[in-house]
Amino acid sequence: MNPNDKPYDFVLFPDGSPERRSGDGHYRFDAERLSGVLKLDLVAHRPVQVASGFLDVLRMKGQDVVVAREVTVRGSVRVIPGSSLKGAVRSLVEALSPSCVRVTGWRSRSAAPRRLNPCSRVDALCPACRLFGMSGRGRENYAGQVGCEDAVMVDGKIVLVRVPLLWAPARGRRGLPARYLEGREAKGRKFYFHGKPARGPDARIAAGTGSVFRARFHFANLTDGEMGLLLVALGQHPEYPFLLKIGAAKPVGLGSVEVRVRRITFLGDLRRSGRAGGGEVLESPELREKMRQWMEAAASENLLNREALEEVWSILRQETLTRTAPEGPY
User: Is the pLDDT assigned to residue 292 strictly greater than 90?
Assistant: First the structure.
């Protein structure tokens, strides 16, 4: 790998400002909208580590004692926390749609385009804030139309991986590094390529390649286009499919995950049954056809930026798994 090459690229910000409107709320289920549960499998194409924050001391082959950060555990099962999965998908929704720049660090805040300032009112929400929520000033908070449970590991094994040491870019400087800027403004949203894991001294415990996690997204009062935008962000577009990047050590080849949609279960007729279950269940091949229609609706509702989709695909498509990750401290 050329030392001047970086393991990331940018998805450019949209030219205009987001079209902001009120969210559809949670006080009732709209019969004209989509509400239910989306059931997924997450298949690891590279080791995945979402650290629990605890440290383990291990003895390897009777010699070195190493410190490794453990995969998150809930009770007796290993999981990808719902917050981590939701955050990864939200970042893609923000990049793929005309949405605000929701989270910025102190060094990058001044470089974010003002036209994309974070949403701060519940009656003026961009597509990403309508789907995933917003925390504004005072009582201006919105839970969002999409929620995510922890993804539970149902197959695979835990492995020890050693990767290069990772550091924050341009530590100690004020503002963003020059390579992140176009003039005074940030180039766009940063995403890491997939790649072959690099080796180094930093030991981590991870879910191994081939591990499978089972996940559930709950959704309420989505339009067809909003459902389509969510599915595109999960890598399901038939022309531009891609893998997600989740967890730690993304620059050095970890965290590449394929999403496989298993089924969608819709809420039943609440007035008739008095309960939320018992609605329509969609599975392949009918599910694939409906997914195609919803993703077309995302484009027709101006929720999906085609140029941004092509840029995301160029970074996260499965073919980039063969890239060489940077060696040494990064």
Answer: yes
